[in-house]
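Sorry to interrupt, but I need a hand with the structure work. Can you supply me with one protein entry, sequence and fold together? No commentary is needed, just the two lines. Leave the record below and I will have a look.
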Amino acid sequence: MTSPAAPGKLAALGRACFRHRRWVLAFWVAVLALGVLIGGRVFEGSVAGTSSGGYESARGTAAVAAADPSAGRVSAVVDGAPVDTPAVREAVTATVHDLAALPGVLSVADAYQPGAASQALRAADGRASLIDVRMADASTAGQQDAVAQRLAALQAPGAHVTVGGDLVLQQEVKDQTQSDTKFGELVTLPLTLIVMVLVFGGLAAASLPVIGAVASVGGALLAMFGFSHLMDIDTSVLPIATVLGLGLSIDYALLMVNRFREERGAGAEIAAAVERTAATAGRTVAFSGLTVAVALSGLFVFSSPVFRAVAAAGVSVVVIAVLAALTLIPALLGFAGHRIKPPKKAEPDEGFFARTVRRVQRRAVPVALICVALLTAAGAPFISAQMRNSGASVLPVSSAGRQVADTVQQRFPLAAEAPVTVVVKAGAPAAQAYADTVVAHLPGVSGVRAVQPVGPQLSTVEVLVQGDPQGGAAKQVVHELREHRGGLSTYVTGGAASVVDFQHELGSRGPWALGLVALGTLVLLFLMTGSVVMPVKALLMNLLSLGCSLGALTLVFQHGWFSGLLGFTPTGGLETFIPVLVFAFAFGLSMDYEVFLLARIKELRDQGYGCQEAVQLGLQRSGRIITSAALLMVIVFAGFAAGQMLMVKQMGIALAVAVAVDATLVRCLLVPATMSFFGEFNWWAPAPLRRLYARFGLREHVALPPLVEPAAGADVEPTDGEPEPAALLPGQRAPEPAPVALPASVELVGS
């Protein structure tokens, strides 16, 4: 076993894609076209909002939804004039009459109808009222739009109308997510093109990674469209998977194009340079994709649908990014290779990175201790992080749906969602008795707002709590209610209950997910390095950089640092599933750069360099490409963080910080310091494992045929397809094309 994909096969793949580049390009153009055509359908078919798998809060919510004949609500706040103003009353009553006649409307309620229930639709200050429209389960988006338009058309003297409700919120989340995704792509792609022009010194080489990234996004949309027919895809998954695919595609294409330039600078013809690039940088890409996929696979351990959806979409996006780098980039090099300028001179062995490493090596222990202290201190704020279900707060304050939700929460105390809701599998009398004798007497419960029947032998008890609806007191009430069920079958639901369930899932399944990711990473790095020390160190350093990222996330989104600059309102906590996703994504991306650097150092050591010299030369020769790749990643993540959706903004900021810290503080200081401190012990492994590595190790070196100097004028763009075979005698077989021989050592890293 020599690599994730055998070098000979990768060389053959690059050769085939080069020769049949028009067919390869046509395939990826078709993928991109289909992705663009169905891109909107992916967002339309997504689900806004997820549950905590099969836990109690999710089961209770599902029971209520199954008993409710409505699909949701479209609501409107009529604000600005006293509710009892005759003109306002007349306008609202007329609108309610019109709404009741519209198709898809199940019922309409307002503040002027008889009965105590109408009091919940009056603001506490008496200057606003609610119109609540329940839509039938079979209602269409067009019918919902018609209701929203009729509500928005309501005119009353001195009053203005804002339309919201859960159905409007869901649609706004989808629309805003799609808008943010497009905005992120439009911002990041031109910026990455500019950076790559500076890196490569030419537009031809710089444009190839951008083209590859665009094609990969089309493939990612196709993959997610397919998964949306197999499972519920949360709307927040789409931009997260897109940003991952975009960043990886640019990184992988950057490695491929950079390696191609080096081969051309060494004298290879275009065809040979493409083949050698596929055999060397292609192996790096394949191995890197494998490490990212392993990190994301840990999410399959969780039962929450959002984690499984991210895992499925993320792994498929990684595969597509790898395939684009291994097939589309060689094909594009066939078209534009003659326009790509080779480097004028080889990368010098003396430079900024080598000098930095030498300074670090002279003070290895103090540098390592300072780096660890800084990263630990930066991650410390995450210890106090609070998990929350943000609800409507994930949308910007300009969103009409959020404005209605905030208004109801602040001014309509009887209509606002209760902090905790108990779903009782019994009729209203039994539920009322349970509320009076059990619920009302529990510590932390400030009162029972309502007991309502929602179906045959199914009722809800709305429980009020003291303080933050999702704070510590509310969570304690959830635990109390689950311990004291009054002899009834109950489900404790609501925002606080879902957070409690999520934390339980994280505590019970998180260690298994972490163990799976750690084990997979340790095995892969061992097979690459033959050491047990290096993989353990890499794992610990990645955890430090991850802690720094999560600490920054807590300071920004929980405590509000730079919230004005970043354009959001802090919610007092982090979205429940974001830290887990940050861990999976950032861990995989950090291992990317670990592979790039360690492979170069390992190659130099195998060539006979000592530990100190191998580290110096390894960072000097790979530092530029790692820094460039990290800068491009930061641009991509920052571009998506500039959007309006809070969850996407949190992911973008966290991943940008993780990559920036990993490519600078960790790779340039901490890795050289620890490697210098451990010396030759870096490469230690027990004898049985050394024998295992000798047999199954993933070799860092790929052997390639010696370069043949091209004849004068021979370096022209080759024709498509296989060369025309010579005439054959009857029964004679055409000779197979010569495979790539593997005698000389060439680096794994495509830098």
Remarks:
- DSSP finds 22 helices and ten strands in the chain.
- The radius of gyration is 30 Å.
- Residues 263 and 273 are 5 Å apart (CA to CA).
